[in-house]
Amino acid sequence: MYYDNKIWIGDADGEKICILPKMANRHGLIAGATGTGKTITLKVLAESFSDAGVPVFLADIKGDLSGMCRPGEDSADMQARIRLFGLDACGFDYHSYPSVFWDIYGEMGIPLRTTISEMGPILLSKLMDLNATQSDILTIVFKIADDEELLLIDTKDLKAMLQYVSENSKELSLTYGNISKQSVAAILRHVVALEAQGGDRFFAEPALTISDWFACGTGGKGNINILDCRTLANNGTLYSAFLLWMLSELFETLPEIGDREKPRMVFFFDEAHLLFDGISKALEDKIEQIVKLIRSKGVGIYFITQNPKDIPDGVLSQLGNKIQHALRAYTPSDEKAVKAAANSFRTNPAFDTKEALTSLGTGEALISVLDEDGIPGVVQKCRILPPQSLMGPIPDSEKKQEVLVNNLYLRYQNMEDRDSAYEFLQRQRVQAVQTAEKERLAGEEAARAEKEAKEKARLAEKEAAQKAKEAQKEAERRKKAISSGVSSVAKTAAGTIGREIGNNIGKSVGGSFGKKLGGNVGASLGRSILGTFLKLF
User: Fold this and answer.
1) Cys bridge to 169: 39, 179, 314, 449, which one at CB 3.0-4.6 A?
2) Please, what is the Cα angle at 393 between 388 and 395, to 5 degrees?
3) DSSP symbol at 264
4) What local confidence, expressed as pLDDT, does residue 183 receive?
5) Going by CATH, does the domain composed of 2-113+206-413 fall within 3.90.1150.10?
6) DSSP 8-state class, residue 196
7) Where are the domains of the chain?
8) DSSP label at residue 385
9) What is the pTM of this model?
């Protein structure tokens, strides 16, 4: 409950135990065994920050925080608690809180997305647990995309870019350094695994505008942004990725303001052990770094878990405001954990901290908060105040209705797939195929034309040779014909001349008989002499 400009958490024998708003950005821890009241404590804190005008983000792992959008219900037990704490004199009443429901998978809330570019190569490398060489190559891939003005929005963009870099590694290595195809293939496998874990829905557009979480509702109350993590909790890698992206985005976006009267925003991560189970050391170190630095941006982070040992020591040391519900010591390991939790508090001489931890009832907690100088106060045994909103969840049907009537749903409901690296590289690949096909067809056409030209030339040559042959034959025929004609005429003439000579000779020798005989012999002799002469030529 927000009272006297303080975050009133509980009561310690009549003393109000409160977190000072200007110390709320020093982070905090809500821990305790199952069923000890951690969720109620979370709701009381979230309501108080909202009443103070501070926007809140809640990771709802179990789905039991949706009741914050409904006013609490009166009962005999509630009346008893109101009287116990004197809440009726402090303005306590039942009311709802401005709640905005989100869901990475878009099933039980407004879809929550970011882009590959906004996540960046460093966070992606840590998310996918890449080795140093693979991380360097992923950074080169992002650099190539920037240089070639290619947008990396979703996982298919990143896969297309990796494929492009692999196919052109030889040429790109001359400019960007050695790019191993084996390393690119390894990164590609990690991306496919990330898609299978829901990354194909988380990395998309429209991406969340982080300023949408800084809005306030009616009466100046800070909006309570509730992320439905019932499905997401089964995927520790994506859950960690979301946390890391969100805190990094806030850290990079918000200016330094140091300590102020109240934080800009407060985050609550329920079942925080899910954030750290099985994550890489690099990812854990990155979370620790951001938790350390984001305080100066005016952002407070509160982890809710069963046992403080669920939180890495480097992160745990940054949590100044501690609310410890009961711990159970059933085993030697549990006993050790109880002792460690007790030793983390400043001792209160009024009671034994370790003993108190194992004997706290439901709704009771050991609390230590920072004073005005940032010094942890002595531990106090407290009763936690009741929430002002509905304690349990609302039905999913009502939750969906709350989502549909929210104006932000209209902005984020439909996934967009604008022109980015994947589409550009697909077009480039299609154009390359088309160009190659055109070149192939042009080559075939040129080869066909060349073949036809050669065939035409061959036929022309053959035809010319045939004509030359025929011309030669015709010339020989004509020569023969002419020769034959000349010979016939010559022979006739020779015969006639020979006959005349023979006639004259024969007549002079033998009279008419001699004339006839001489004529025949002269004609034959004349033709014979001429034939012999013609053969010589």
Assistant:
1) 179
2) 130
3) S
4) 94
5) no
6) I
7) 2-113+206-413, 123-194
8) P
9) 0.79
